[in-house]
């Protein structure tokens, strides 16, 4: 029976969360989509949805179905994981999904805390910073699907919910667990259903986690999960685990697929280009998924080698993304590239790739779905928030390693160091 039942709105976010829990001593399995059969055994089960940018009603329905599966398995506490940059539009999907889960779990109140200080996401007075910049000046204002143009999360979540949104301010969080609990009671009694929780350091996240030990639902980024395993240990439910993140050895060819257009991913492609064969597809010049996949298949024919990875990217800077979106519409542009990347990933695995890095949450979603991966066991981290995972898709039943890299995560040499 899982102690913690998690619902993640994208696949890279789910691995990020799973990785945090493994680091804190929980075993974790990521399940792809709402499971039809029984859930795998683990201290934490993370159901990974691709619900960040789908229509609100579908996101709510899928999240509730995931919640039912976790309830049926006996999960004791629930976590709704969204992006540390709060990726969403004014319509949702964070607010509506959080409201629906809160209602189903009869939770009354939940905190909302996307902070992830290790990766530079901090929240002060309800404002989200990415590194030294406000969210709306961090590059996220140009995100292809969820441009973030307001850093004030109390306002952003307020636009997405009917329940009123308050703030758990720095001054309270800094004073620790007791002060947080008292403030939550005050917020709840004052009619708030959500509060953005300020957090600048891991110590703040640990204090928030401890203070929320008896909350039915917690919402946030992976950081907010840091303090939760200790709650279960303290209450005697979580035994000490040796190495919660041990994975089988896997050899085989190595490749990277990138569909993220984030600054970090563009930088990582720039570094990889100087060291390993790198194909940069031009979706604007060839707005045709099948043709893009064909180009990649022809290219890879004599590039795959046991000595080093290859990189295939559709990623483009904001002006080129915008141009393709103007031509096709935002969703169609994203879907076209995702379709091409999924097809390319399939071809890579067919050609013997068994260690595959995928950059971008939506991109990872389409790749993992195309490969027919049903669950991922979480292993060691390459960089904060990005672990290697082990899967046994139908096309590689002997097992393969996948690393699903959140767009903005990873050091500049990530596409090289992942394989070292
Ligand atoms: N050249 C391009 N033109 C237009 N859209 C593109 C292009 N390249 C990729 N895309 C689309 O941009 C979107 C990028 O989203 P994705 O979630 O994969 O990356 P991300 O948002 O940077 O990562 P994360 O969600 O992990 O933060 C995808 O839908 C992808 O298909
Ligand atoms: O929280 C993050 O930034 C990531 O786990 C993510 O969700 C990226 O898609």
UniProtKB/TrEMBL annotation:
GO terms for molecular function: kinase activity. Residues 255-415 form the Four-carbon acid sugar kinase nucleotide binding domain. It is an enzyme of class 2 (transferase). Gene3D superfamilies: Four-carbon acid sugar kinase, nucleotide binding domain, Putative sugar-binding, N-terminal domain. Residues 4-228 form the Four-carbon acid sugar kinase N-terminal domain. It comes from the Bacteria. It holds the Pfam family NBD_C. This is 3-oxo-tetronate kinase. Belongs to the four-carbon acid sugar kinase family. Its EC number is 2.7.1.217. Catalyzes the ATP-dependent phosphorylation of 3-oxo-tetronate to 3-oxo-tetronate 4-phosphate. Keywords: ATP-binding, Carbohydrate metabolism, Kinase, Nucleotide-binding, Transferase.
């Amino acid at each position: 029976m899982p102690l913690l039942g998690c619902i993640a709105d994208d696949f890279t976010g789910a691995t990020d969360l799973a990785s945090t829990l493994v680091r804190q001593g929980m075993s974790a399995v990521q399940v792809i989509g709402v499971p039809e059969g029984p859930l795998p055994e683990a201290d934490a089960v993370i159901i990974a949805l691709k619900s960040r940018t789908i229509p609100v009603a579908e996101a709510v329905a899928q999240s509730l179905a995931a919640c039912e599966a976790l309830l049926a398995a006996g999960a004791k506490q629930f976590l709704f994981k969204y992006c540390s940059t709060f990726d969403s539009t004014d319509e949702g999907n964070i607010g509506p999904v959080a409201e629906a889960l809160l209602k189903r779990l009869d939770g009354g109140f939940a905190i909302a805390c996307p902070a992830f200080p290790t990766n530079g996401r901090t929240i002060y007075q309800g404002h989200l910073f990415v590194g030294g910049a406000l969210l709306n000046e961090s590059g996220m204002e140009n995100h292809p699907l969820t441009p973030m143009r307001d850093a004030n999360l109390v306002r952003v979540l307020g636009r997405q919910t009917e329940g009123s949104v308050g703030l758990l301010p720095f001054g309270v969080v800094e004073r620790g667990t007791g002060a947080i609990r008292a403030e939550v009671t005050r917020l709840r009694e004052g009619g708030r259903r959500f509060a953005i929780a300020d957090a600048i350091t891991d110590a703040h996240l640990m204090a928030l986690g401890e203070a929320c030990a008896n909350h039915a639902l917690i919402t946030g980024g992976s950081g907010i999960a840091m303090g939760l395993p200790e709650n279960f240990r303290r209450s005697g439910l979580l035994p000490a685990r040796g190495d919660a993140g041990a994975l089988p050895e896997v050899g085989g060819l190595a490749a990277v697929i990138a569909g993220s257009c984030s600054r970090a991913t563009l930088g990582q492609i720039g570094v990889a280009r100087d060291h390993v064969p790198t194909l940069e597809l031009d979706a604007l010049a060839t707005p045709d998924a099948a043709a893009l996949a064909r180009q990649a298949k022809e290219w890879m024919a004599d590039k795959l080698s046991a000595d080093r990875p290859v990189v295939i990217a559709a990623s483009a800077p904001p002006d080129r993304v915008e141009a393709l979106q103007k031509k096709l519409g935002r969703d169609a542009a994203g879907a076209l590239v995702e379709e091409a990347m999924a097809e390319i990933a399939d071809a890579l695995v067919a050609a013997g790739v068994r260690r595959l890095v995928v950059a971008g949450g939506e991109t990872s979603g389409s790749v993992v779905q195309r490969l027919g991966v049903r669950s991922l066991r979480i292993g060691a981290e390459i960089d904060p928030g990005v672990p290697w995972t082990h899967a046994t898709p139908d096309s590689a039943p002997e097992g393969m390693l996948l690393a699903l890299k959140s767009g903005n995560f990873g050091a500049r040499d990530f596409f090289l160091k992942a394989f070292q």
